[in-house]
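Researcher: Here's my situation. A collaborator sent me these components and asked whether they could plausibly form a single complex. I don't have experimental data yet, so a predicted model of the whole assembly would be a useful starting point for our discussion.
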Amino acid sequence: MPEHARVTPDPLDRAALEKLVRTPADGAVVVFEGVIRDHDHGAGVASLDYRAHPDAEAFLTRIVDETAAATGVRLAAAHRIGHLAIGDTALVAVAASAHRAEAFAACARLVEAIKAGVPIWKRQHLDGGATEWVGLTE
Amino acid sequence: MTVARSIEVRYFAAAADAAGREEETIALPAAATVGGLRAALLERYGAPMERALRTGSFLVDGVVSRDDARPLGDRVDVLPPFAGG
């Protein structure tokens, strides 16, 4: 089980992820947290349910490793699944490098790659009781 | 169309809602492709499946594909658009 790329129903441990990638040579540690917000496309959001494909962690691992190899920046990421409330953290991505520019860029690249390439879905519970799968076009 | 083999199909998220199930076996021709499965699913499950598949993909032999010409193995997963993060 790769520690630096996890898909888990448990609350995410940001400090543990940071510890995995930080070295004494790093002058920059960039952490992104994706957080459940209370609105989307103008509608109020009450909560979210995340579902993952059984192989989601393998997809995440490959994306973290490929992005780390392409950028030369140490990276780790974890995605939470299950029922999440407003303010909960769904995604943590951490980048550590000697200088900040590479760390910012690698962290952003990793987050975009995760959103595009890991088979995870979320069902949004809107204020008023309606539910919808996020990402379907009308 | 000669029915030549059975394919195990798993549905996820919006595709599972559209199909009303999480898996089933579908009979397709021996030379079945992603495009052939797509057509069969649209015929069975109509507009809700069309919406799930429009920007979705298929997991075939470990590879995420939107290529209608891609041949199917014995198992395929139907993946609506990813929405992680």
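Model: Some features of this prediction you could bring to your collaborator: Chain B has one domain: 4-79. The longest helix of chain B spans residues 34-54.
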